[in-house]
Structures are given as structure tokens and as C-alpha cells.
Amino acid sequence: MSHIVDSVYVPLLNGHGFVRDPDNQQYGSLGVCWRLSPEIGSGTYWTYGHEDLYMIKIHNFSFHEDYLLDFPLPECLSITRYDSISGEELSPYRRLSAGCIKTFIGGQTPYKALIHKNIPIRSIGIEIAPAYYEDYLRKLYPEMAQSPVDAFRRIDETLDFPEMSQLLTEIKNYRGEGIAAKLFYEGKVAEAVSMVVEYQKKHPEKSAQRLSAQDQESIQTVAAYLSDHYAAHVPMDRLSQIACMGTTKLKTCFKKTYGCTITEYVQQRRMSQAEYLLAYTSLTVGQIAQTVGYSTSSRFAELFRKSTGLLPLEYRKTAQR
């Protein structure tokens, strides 16, 4: 077992009900597989760590009941893609969504999330330790000017990173052994870091400008209005009137405040309500689609699968079992 897995993840996994499953080699024998205790849930958590440099993680598990994850993230740079998920991050509050590329900077505040019962967490991720990005990379590439930390921080969450999604898929599907596998993972980690740095160069951060207290209050009022009227079509000019600002400024300030567009904010609110209705009511998919604001069940199903990784009926069957 590697230093990074042994020192950080053994106590973390044990504390959340995972036990080592040495006979399980579904993702290759190079890593360590952990199985969730049947009293808590089902499924596996596979890890491969190389010394104190980096770690690969593949999740495929679910909890029997809604489960609060609350743990300190080690100091690291993390990049993850969820293929299916249902829940909310709590600090700050944000709905967890499938399909997007997410980055975290560990070692700052504890990670808190509420995971919904029975819905599988299927994900693939890489965690890169300071020994890699502060020491190892600097020795290999002393001319490197861009800080990987800044590059990871800029991404946060995006649907527009297909090359990273492809790289993570290649890692998830790989089944090599021995030295070939070690070289494969080492190469993919280096490739992932270079992709993040290049992505940041192509998407430079615009000059930061803090919102005034009045603008912040206006944007919060718009968000509250959208939360109350998410199922209706709300014209942009009405939101501009509520905010007392032009549409261009409104869109810019809203994204700066909430990290997403107004359309994405409404969709997240709709999907959260749809998850609840699928899990706890007997409404048909068509009725739920109309309830949360979609005129056709096919459009609703398409967006729901993008958001959770599951079709509505698959979600209902899993959530209600």
C-alpha cells in the first residue's frame, strides 16, 4: 500500500464504513479495493497511490440512507468526474451533478456533502499531492511559470473539458499490470496536470471586480425569485427589472456570484425537485416534467440523465427500492 493511501485514506475509509477487499481486482491488482459495509450500503472504492505523489480513485457505491460526508480533504489538487450522483455539497451549498469536470483544492476547509440514498456514486478522479506539484514537477520543469494550484482553482466546475473527460475514461477502463501500469498512471497524471494548465491559458480569468453591496443584494433577490418560480418561464426583462440592472450586467453579476448562468441555476433547481418527486411520489414522469417546468417528458429525461447519470425511471427504481 502506498504512503498516500496508508497515511490519509485508510483511516478515512475505515471511518466511513469501508473495509479492505483484497480479492477484488475489478480495476486491476495494482491498486487496493475497499468494499462498503452492508449495514451502511453497497459497492466499492478503488485506490491506487504512488508513494506520496498522487492517487487514482474510482468510486462505485451507494448508501442505504441519506448520508452526510464530512471529512478534511488532505492538501492536494483534485480533479473528478461523476458519471452518476445525487446530492448536495454543503460548504458552500451546491448541487452535485454528473457529467462535469470538478476541481478541488484540498487542505483548506473540510468537505461536506449530503449524498442521497440508494443512488450510486460512480466517479473517477485524481488527487495530486504537494510533493508532486511543488517538488517533483519543479525539478523536472524548472522553467514552468504557471502554478498548477492557480490553474486548478480557476476551473472549479465545467462541462466544457472533453479532453479531460476522455483521459479519465481511459484511466477508468485501463486494466494493466506491473511496471506497465505504473508507467501508464504516471503518464496520465502528468497529462492531466498539463491539460489543466493549458485549459487555464485558453480560458483566462477576467479582471476581478468585487460586486457592490447593492449589486450583491440585487443578485440574491433574483436568485430567491428564481427559486420560488423555477417551474415557470421567467423573461429576462423581468429579472432585469427585479435587479434594477441591464441584462448584460445581470448575467455577468449572477455568474460571478453563483458560478453558473441563470439558465443553469434554474435547471439545477428543477432537477433537485424532480429527484424528490421521483423518489417520494407516484407522479408519472410526464407529470413530474410538467411540474418542474418542461413541456415534454423527452426533454426532461434528457436533461435529467445529464444531471444525474440516470434516466428518470432508473432513478425512481433505484431510489425507491
Protein topology:
Blueprint: H1 3-15, E1 18-20, E2 32-36, E3 41-50, E4 54-63, E5 67-71, E6 77-84, E7 87-90, E8 93-95, E9 101-105, E10 111-115, E11 121-128, H2 130-140, H3 148-155, E12 157-158, H4 162-173, H5 178-202, H6 213-228, H7 236-243, H8 247-258, H9 262-280, H10 285-291, H11 297-308, H12 312-319
Antiparallel strand pairs: 1-2, 2-3, 3-4, 4-11, 5-10, 6-9, 6-11, 7-8, 7-10, 9-12
Helix pairs in contact: 3-5, 4-5, 6-8
In brief:
Helix content is 47%, strand content 21%. The protein has 321 residues and is of the alpha+beta class.
Describe this protein's structure.
- The chain is α+β, with helices and mostly antiparallel strands and 321 residues long.
- The chain has helices at residues 3-15, 130-140, 148-155, 162-173, 178-202, 213-228, 236-243, 247-258, 262-280, 285-291, 297-308, 312-319, and strands at residues 18-20, 32-36, 41-50, 54-63, 67-71, 77-84, 87-90, 93-95, 101-105, 111-115, 121-128, 157-158.
- Strands 1-2-3-4-11-6-9-12 form an 8-stranded antiparallel sheet, with helices on both faces.
- A hairpin with a 3-residue loop joins strand 3 (41-50) and strand 4.
- Helix 3 packs across helix 5 (178-202), helix 4 (162-173) runs antiparallel to helix 5 and helix 6 packs across helix 8.
- The mean pLDDT is 90.
